[in-house]
Amino acid sequence: MIAKQEMTTMKHKSIFAFLLFCLFTITPVCAQRVMTLEECIDAARRGNTSVKDAKNDILMAKEQRKFARSKYFPSLSASAFHFRSSDYLAKYEVLSQEDVDYLNEELGGGFSIEDFTIGIVKKGTSGGLTLIEPLYTGGRISNYNRLADLQVEGRQLQLDVAEDQTVMQTEFLYYKILELHETDKTLDAIEKELSNIHQDAQNAWENGIVNKNDVLSVELAQDQLSALRIKASNGRNLLRRALAKHIGMADEDIDVDTTLSTDIIAPEELAVSTQSAVESRSETRLLDMLVEKSVLERKIATANMLPILAVGATASYSKFTTQKWNSRLMTFISVQMPLSTFWSERHEYKRKKIEEQKALDFRRDKRELISLQIQDAYDNLVSTYRQTQVAQKSIARAEENMRITREHYREGLTTMTVLLDAQRQQQQALSQKTAAVSEYLQAKTRYLILTGRR
C-alpha cells in the first residue's frame, strides 16, 4: 500500500514537472514581440507583398535580358526526315514508245513501255544540322537588347519606389499605434485628475457646499473616459494586426516601442533645392526611361522594314537512291526582304513615332507634378513643425488653467462645469501634442523620400 502511494506521488511529481517544462518552453513562443520603427521598416523591406513582387519583377527582367542576349549567337537546329511512297517519285524511260513498238514488230514480243522504265526514289531517310548566324538585321537584335537592359534598370527603380511607399505606409501605421499608446498614457493622467476632482466633489457634497450634481457630472466624465479607453484599445489592436500584415508578419503578435521620438528638427535644416530634388528622384529616371523605351521601339519598327542578311551551313546525312548513306556539307548566304509587310510596317512605324511624342509630353507634365509634390511635402513639413510648437505651448497653458480652475472650485469661486471643461482642454492639449509629433515625423520622412534622400 505504501509502495502504491509512493508511485502515485512520483507520478504526480512527473506530471507537475512536465507542465512546468511546457509552461517555460511554450510561453516565449506565444509572447508578444515589441518592435522599433527601424525593425518594422527592415521587416517590411523583406516581407511586404509589393516589395516582393517588385523583386520578382527584377528577376523576370533579368531572364528576359538573357533571352535577348542569346539572339546574338548562331541558331542551331536539327531535323530528321523519312518517307515511303506508293510509287516512285521519278521514272527514267530507257526506250521511247516508238522503240518499244519496233521491238514488238521485229521480235513479236508483248513489250510495253513500263518494261523499259527505271523507277527512282520510292523511299528515303535523311537527317541534318543547320547553323545560321545573322549578319545584319537592321538593328532588331541590338535594340531589343538595349530594351531588355532598360527593363532591368526600370525594375530596379520600381523596387526603390515600392520600398519608399512601403516605408511611408509602415511609418503611418507605426505612429498611429504609438498615438494610441500615448492616448492611454494621457487617459491614465486624466483618470488620476478626475479621481482627485471626484474626491473634491464628494467632500464638498458631504459638507453641504455643493449638490450631488457635481459628483454625478464627474462620474459621467469618468464613464466617458472608460469608453474612450475601450475605443483606443480596439483601434490599437486593429492597427497592430494591419501593421503585422503590412510588414509580412501576419502570423505574429507584435506591438511597437512606446518611446515617442523627440527628434524635432527645424524644416530649414532639411530643405534642399526643388530642382535638384526632382533630378534625384527615382520617378524622374523612370520618366526618362519611358522616353528611351519609346525611342527604341520606334527604331525596332524601322528595322522591321529593312532586309535581313544571314550566313549559314548545313550538314546532312541521307539515303535515297542507293543503299549507302551519303553525307553532305553545304554553306549558304541568304537575304530576306519584307515586301508584302512593308506597307503595314510603315503604319506601325508612324504609330511608334506618335507614342514617342506622347512619352515626351508625359515626362514634361509629370516632372512638373513631381516638383509640386516636393513643394507640398515641404509646406506640410513646415506646417506640422509649427503645430508641434503650438501644441507644446498649449499643454503649458492648459495645465496652468487647470491648476487655477481647481483652486477656484475648492474655494467655491467657480462651478464643476467650468472645472470639467478645463480638464477636457488639458486632455485635448495632451492628445494634440502626440498627434502633432506623429504627423511631423511622418512629414519629415515623406519629405526626405520625395527629395531622393532614402
User: Would you tell me the overall average pLDDT?
Assistant: 84
Q: What is the general shape? A: elongated
Neighbour order of strands in the largest sheet: 2-5-7-8
Tally of contiguous helical segments: 11
Strand content: 5-15%
The N- and C-terminal alpha carbons lie at a distance of 77 Å
pLDDT < 50 stretches: 1-13, 15-30
Give the biggest sheet.
4 strands, antiparallel
Please, could you describe this protein's structure?
With 454 residues, this protein is an alpha+beta fold. The chain has 11 helices and 8 strands. The chain has helices at residues 2-30, 37-47, 49-69, 97-107, 140-206, 212-246, 267-270, 274-280, 282-303, 342-410, 416-450, and strands at residues 33-35, 75-84, 90-93, 117-120, 123-136, 254-256, 308-319, 326-336.
Short account of what is shown:
This protein has helices at 2-30, 37-47, 49-69, 97-107, 140-206, 212-246, 267-270, 274-280, 282-303, 342-410, 416-450; strands at residues 33-35, 75-84, 90-93, 117-120, 123-136, 254-256, 308-319, 326-336. The chain is of the alpha+beta class and 454 residues long.
